[in-house]
Write a structure and sequence with these properties.
Length: 489
């Protein structure tokens, strides 16, 4: 049985078939067609914008507490429906069910809860200006905001954009990736059940063309995109026409640095977390693992030993650690990088092949792969692969490794493993990255601002910073005396 994935505009699913293009939603693990995505048209985008404009002023006029209650109710609904939502996410993305249950759904619920709680705490400032005047600031919503999502964390991305936008009194129109249409739609239904008025969260299905229609729409005030660097360029250029606010969560080629004094087991565990979660399709992945020369052989041996134990398999099986890559085309790209790595002289320590045994033959499965003895100039060390491919490099000096870690146009994340407190903070400060993990990797609690520097992005999601990203500060100057005017009376 297949499903239809229409848009969800003004509180309801749109008609099926719609007037726009159609495409198949394919299960990456089996190649089976899950259903038909009914792409929005630009007229649908206009309808979503009109519905948002109609609903947003009354929403902004509510108390923060009233808005927050609806967000928190939505979080409860997501938690109640965790099993069903996790399954939807697995069918669309190919990621292991154990991850979808533990991370994807709860991260979205945490986000709605966090911003639901904060909505009532948003305050302006009072600015004293002597005895005859003062000023104050009002935190005002931007109006209609747009979110454009990637396919690796569809529900989490939709929540990370919608929750702070709605908490601040905006409306959100969200476009999921056309490879993962299901859970943004499920979120629309959870919002409706929680009592969110129609028009405040709409979903428009489609590809980059619908994304571009959002980025350039004259009545949309802000666009937040999660995706590749080239898409970020296009969205920002489109948004420039109407001078929109932008938040850009783009790609990365992050470094994980393992110093000589690191706890070996923790360092290996962090390297696994930094590379093989969601089959390596994580923007923050620490794919360049720099290990102190003195630790290298022991680290590599243990890394290979633990990688060999990872179960590649059916994403719906709770025992699976590594699922299917998003599409056959993406798998071919990842396998191409692996081939290039070998050709350029990296040593394949483990993995490197597509898995085609039994039922896996129908899906996009690639073994977790470790390349040892990599060098900085290699293609696999320079480019974002977005698959389960770890490049191991060695270093001698702290200053040397920091310089090499920073020698990339990207700047999303970094990690370091050491027992030396001073070094930890010195290196965290020196790394050019939006997020640095000390003695761990890839944790993104909702309380912590998240985003990149350099080509990895602009702006921050999560934490208190996200409220700034979805609001303006209006300054109100109040005079308590007469107007001091130099002109003749
Ligand atoms: O990203 P795209 P994809 C990176 C990663 C991956 C690559 C491709 O390197 O291999 O991106 O993934 C919409 N105007 N990341 O193809 O193409 C598009 O429809 C407006 C990093 O998913 O950048 C989708 O909804 N929108 C990332 C979204 O942008 C446009 C996670 C992302 O698509 C558009 C996933 C346009 N001109 C992939 N063109 C991360 N940072 O987490 C496309 N889109």
């Amino acid at each position: 049985m297949t499903t239809d994935y229409p848009s969800h505009i003004a509180g309801a699913r749109t008609a099926v078939p719609g007037a726009g293009d159609r495409s198949d939603n394919v299960n990456p693990a089996t190649g089976a067609v899950l259903g038909t995505i009914h792409h929005a048209t630009t007229a649908d985008v206009d309808a979503a914008v009109a519905a948002a404009q109609a609903a947003q002023p009354a929403w902004a006029a509510l108390t923060g507490a009233a808005r927050g209650r609806i967000l928190k109710r939505t979080a409860d609904i997501l938690r109640r429906d965790t099993a069903a939502l996790a399954r939807l996410e697995v069918l669309d993305t190919g990621k292991p069910i154990s991850e979808a249950l533990a991370v994807d759904v709860s991260s979205a619920a945490d986000c709605l809860e966090f911003f639901g709680g904060l909505a009532a705490a948003v305050q302006g400032e009072h600015i004293p200006l002597g005895s005859s005047a003062f000023a104050y600031t009002r935190r005002e919503p931007l109006g209609v905001c747009a979110g454009i999502g990637a396919w690796n964390y569809p529900l989490q991305i939709a929540a990370w954009k919608a929750a702070p936008a709605l908490a601040m009194g905006n409306a959100m129109i969200f476009k999921p990736s056309d490879m993962t249409p299901a859970t943004a739609l499920a979120l629309a239904e959870a919002f409706a059940e929680a009592g969110l008025p129609a028009g405040l969260y709409s979903v428009v299905q489609g590809d980059g063309r619908i994304g571009a229609a959002l980025a350039t729409h004259p009545d949309i005030a802000k666009v937040s995109v999660t995706g590749s660097v080239p898409t970020g360029h296009k969205v920002m250029a489109g948004a420039a026409e109407t001078l929109k606010h932008v938040t850009m969560e783009l790609g990365g080629k992050s470094a994980l640095i393992v110093f000589e004094d690191a706890d070996l087991e923790n360092a290996v565990a962090a390297a696994l977390m930094a590379n093989f979660y969601t089959q390596g399709e994580v923007c923050t992945n620490g794919t360049r693992v720099f290990v102190a020369e003195a630790l290298h052989d022991r680290f590599l041996a243990r890394l290979v030993e633990r990688t060999a134990k990872l179960v590649v398999g059916d994403p719906l099986d709770p025992a699976t650690h590594v699922g299917a890559l998003i599409s056959a085309a993406h798998m071919d790209k990842v396998l191409g990088f692996i081939e290039t790595g070998t050709r350029e002289g990296a040593e394949l320590a483990i993995g490197g092949k597509r898995r085609t045994d039994g039922a896996l033959a129908a899906g996009n499965f690639v073994e977790p792969t470790v390349f040892a003895r990599c060098r900085d100039g290699m293609t696999i060390v320079g480019e974002e692969i977005f698959g389960p491919v770890l490049s191991l490099l060695t270093f001698r000096e702290e200053a040397e490794v920091v310089a090499r870690a920073n020698a990339t146009p990207f700047g999303l994340a970094a990690g370091l493993m050491t027992r030396d407190l001073a070094r930890a903070h010195r290196v965290a400060a020196a790394l050019e990255a939006g997020v640095v993990w000390v003695n761990d990797y890839n944790l993104t609690p909702i309380e912590m601002p998240f985003g990149g520097v350099k080509r990895s992005g602009i702006g921050r999601e999560n934490g208190l910073a996200a409220l700034d990203a979805y609001s303006e500060r209006k300054s109100v100057y109040v005079s308590l005396g007469d107007v001091d005017c130099p002109y003749p009376t």
